[in-house]
Amino acid sequence: MQSSTTYNVLAGRDLGRLAALSDGVFAFAMTLLVLDLRVPAVAAIKDEHQLATALLALAPRLVPYVMTFLTLGIFWVGHQTQLTLLDRTDRNLAWLTIAFLFTVTLMPFSTSLLAEFLAFRLALITYWLNILLLGVTLGAMWAYARRSSLTSAEVTYEVSATVVRRIVVAQSLYAFGAALCAFNTYVSIVFIVVVQLNYVLAPRIWPLDRL
Fold first, then answer.
1. Banded model confidence at residue 7, pLDDT cuts 50, 70, 90
2. Is 206 helix (H, G, I), strand (E, B) or coil?
3. Positive or negative, the Cα torsion across 200, 205, 210, 211?
4. Cα–Cα distance between 135 and 74 in angstroms, integer?
5. Euclidean distance between the first and final Cα of the chain, in Å?
6. Would you say residue 49 lies in a domain?
7. Is residue 45 in some structural domain?
């Protein structure tokens, strides 16, 4: 028992390796997304018009691709921000990070599902649930880091509250966007894209840039 306890205390303490693993998983998941955009079959294309038509047919698949690329970019920035606020890590935080990365690896699947069934509510809800899991695990990581005093001395209550508020507000907006699929899935998608663009561009004139 003593040996196991000692090992658990020693395990998962390299913050740099944790960041490297996270960057690798995000990069791989973001790269996988493009594989869902398939080049039109050569045998089916006889002229420029047919090629243009085939490329236009890819447009519905391009929307979920862009959505997910933005989503993963937003969560990568959020996770990277958390890591910069940590002074150290431990085994439990390492496994919470792995759980977070697990939800990242699910994004190519939920994106492909949404691309295939863009008008289906269940596909949109599945996609949203994936985003919800990203937010829950990211929030759990921060809550544990604060509770276990893993954050650096510069992290005040105000800084911590800002991190939590951003996660909660973003997840609330995503949930509202998903709820809009009760009326129309396309309305949901447009709303989610607008939310994503807000967090990517962070316009000064828009109040959500502070959230």
1. low
2. coil
3. negative
4. 11
5. 46
6. no
7. no
* Nearest partner of 177 among 114, 105, 116, judged by Cα: 114
Look at residue 105 and tell me if it is in a domain.
Answer: yes
Chain Cα centroid distance, residue 169? 15
Q: Report the alpha-carbon distance of residue 108 to residue 166 in Å, rounded.
A: 24
Summarize pLDDT for 121-156 with one digit per residue, the tens. Answer: 999 999 999 999 999 999 999 999 988 888 888 888
Query: In degrees, to the nearest 5, what angle opens at C-alpha 101 toward C-alphas 167 and 119?
Result: 70
Residue 64: closest CA among 22, 104, 123, 24: 123
Is the pTM higher than 0.90? The answer reads no
Q: Which two tokens stand for residue 185?
A: 């899935």
Angle of helix 121-147 relative to helix 91-105, nearest 10 degrees, comes to 170
Residue 151's DSSP bridge partners are 86
